[in-house]
Amino acid sequence: MAIFIIIAILLIDQIIKIWVKTNMTLHESIYITDWFRICFIENNGMAYGMEIGSKAVLSIFRIILIGAIGYYMYLQIKKKARFGYIVCLAMVIAGALGNIFDCMFYGLIFNASSDFYTSYFVPFGTGYAPFLMGKVVDMFYFPLIVTTWPQWIPFVGGEEFIFFSPIFNFADASISVGFVLLMLFYRTELSHITFKNQPAEIVDNKDDKETEHEE
């Protein structure tokens, strides 16, 4: 089930990204409602367009982190952890994989995006960037509240204010939802994170001590 969830999220994420990249020009926006638009942008950084340090180092760090979380999830499956906990971990892993896939391969298989034409596939290795240096495709924009700061507020008075301005993708949403659910419902599991697969020994030792006490 964990593998199925990861594959399903990856497929949905990549289908959306490829459609946007090959059907929209960079910075083009499709109006859905006043509070929801499809807006094509690309970024070099982490979730929601943040940029931290070197692109190559960031990509390698992501791969290591994904491997660590994947190994931890494997141990939790062997320990028969709660189903919802495994689902949340799978969502975080799938989202991270979706964005690292962009970094790894989009620069190799696509030409550079432009404000004047849609991107298209090119022969492998002849794209706009080398391995691990591709850009992440974002498109979901939810300007829930668009207003203006009152004039009397220092520094920002009279300027436009947009509540929830980040533009993100399906992978980002998967990571965020999985993380929030972990924080809300699985704090006990998170407080006992370990990469050791020895739950049975701990229980047995506890039972032995209780038996000795009773004797």
UniProtKB/TrEMBL annotation:
Active site (UniProt): 138, 172
InterPro entries with a match to the protein in the record: Peptidase_A8
Enzyme Commission code(s) on record: 3.4.23.36
Transmembrane segments: 56-74, 86-110, 116-133, 163-186
Annotated catalysed reactions: Release of signal peptides from bacterial membrane prolipoproteins. Hydrolyzes -Xaa-Yaa-Zaa-|-(S,diacylglyceryl)Cys-, in which Xaa is hydrophobic (preferably Leu), and Yaa (Ala or Ser) and Zaa (Gly or Ala) have small, neutral side chains
Membrane topology: Multi-pass membrane protein
Source organism, top-level taxon: Bacteria
Pathway(s) served: Protein modification; lipoprotein biosynthesis (signal peptide cleavage)
The protein's enzyme class: hydrolase
Keywords: Aspartyl protease, Cell membrane, Hydrolase, Lipoprotein, Membrane, Protease, Transmembrane, Transmembrane helix
Family from the record: Belongs to the peptidase A8 family.
Function: This protein specifically catalyzes the removal of signal peptides from prolipoproteins.
Protein name as it appears in the record: Lipoprotein signal peptidase
Source organism per UniProt: Xylanibacter rodentium
